[in-house]
Design goal:
three-stranded antiparallel β-sheet; eight-stranded mixed β-sheet; alpha+beta; Nucleoside Triphosphate Pyrophosphohydrolase; about 210 residues
Length: about 210
């Protein structure tokens, strides 16, 4: 696991693949006309948010943790990383850890922050979301907060490296037909903003697995 950590740290110190990697998992209108404002803020009064990208290292293989959000909250019924809006003077990292503690009972002392991925602007909620990578080295039990999380799942990272779980379908989003790429890793598909952030992490992880 230490070699993977070194690999990711090295990748984070280089120029990240950014928007190009994110948009590989972006829904695109069937008519081919994408709306750039969905991913680029019109001004700087957006809300700053962050999510934790938890990489579990204590198991036999590297795993990524996701939550299934309760139906009653924003983006309910979707797979996501734990996270939320920045409060007060806390850092992006502090926000991600606090939200993960609130949502899944993560012990922040057992999370090693590795670095940040490229922020992603989510237009329909006017949030600039920064993904924060954390390695979870020590075993712990996660407990979903029923007000926010219906289920906690972990998925082997290698499932994202190999493309057999990558699917694209035609969906209707807000009554507009889209081609939607998603990962079939659960009975609920992993798509949208979370998939776009995950896409960049997959991009920087892939060279490590090629050398295995």
């Amino acid at each position: 696991m230490s070699s993977f950590k070194s690999h990711i740290q090295s990748q984070l110190n280089n120029t990240l693949p950014g928007r190009e990697a994110q948009r590989k998992m972006a829904p695109t209108p069937v008519n081919g006309k994408n709306n750039p404002k969905n991913y680029e803020p019109a001004n700087d009064d957006f809300r700053n948010s962050s999510v934790l990208v938890p990489i579990i290292t204590w198991k036999d293989e590297l795993q990524v943790l996701f939550t299934l959000r309760t139906q009653s909250i924003n983006h309910g019924g979707q797979l996501s990383f734990p996270g939320g809006g920045k409060e007060g003077d806390e850092t992006i990292e502090e926000t991600a850890l606090r939200e993960a503690q609130e949502e899944i009972g993560l012990n922040p002392e057992k999370a090693e922050i590795i670095g940040r991925l490229t922020p992603l602007y989510v237009g329909h909620s006017d949030n600039m979301v920064t993904p924060v990578i954390a390695f979870i080295h020590h075993k712990q039990e996660f407990t979903p907060n029923p007000n926010e999380v219906d289920e906690i799942i972990t998925v082997p990272l290698k499932d994202f490296i190999h493309k057999d779980k990558l699917v694209t379908e035609k969906w209707s989003l807000r009554d507009v037909p889209y081609h939607v790429p998603f990962w079939k890793i659960h009975h609920v598909p992993l798509w949208g903003a979370t998939a776009m952030m995950m896409s960049e992490f997959v991009e920087i992880s892939r060279p490590f697995f090629k050398n295995q």
